[in-house]
Here is the input.
Amino acid sequence: MNKPTLVAPAEFSAVGELVVGAYEAAGVLAGDGRYRSVLADTAGRAAKAAVYVVHDDAGRLVATVTVTTPGSPYVQVAGPGELEFRMLAVDPAAAGHGIGSALVDFCVEHASARGDTAVVLCVVDTNTAAVRLYRRLGFEHLPERDLQVAPEVRLMVMRRALGG
Here is the structure.
């Protein structure tokens, strides 16, 4: 995987399309027009959080992740000393090559460099592939921190402790 870089304004639209497409392919958007617009709003995210992108060797956009910063409106569950990442998405055509795992590793390294003690995330409880990935990468489910964001949508909070 090429190293993640901060999104360029010229990529905002393509990144929004990638995120929406990946979430649709995972079956976790089921008619939620409000959240679809949040996912598509890369410019809004980039103004208040760090949006990273990954390109393949041919320069094609293949993945993205948003790393929240303390005080950002994009923080859902992070507490003191926790880095939270959101909207990790891999182009379905590029899936299965370890890009998602590499992006999670990037977030963990970023958190360690910042001096954080843990990395947290939310994942829709029906997204079994993502839950499986996060568990494999050392994240534990914290049911006491789960969020019910709509009658039919529950977000599992997962956390990976860092360091000793």
In short: Residues 8 and 53 are 9 Å apart (CA to CA). Strands lie at 5-6, 50-55, 61-67, 82-90, 118-124, 140-141, 147-150, 153-161. The domain at 5-115 is CATH 3.40.630.30 (Aminopeptidase).
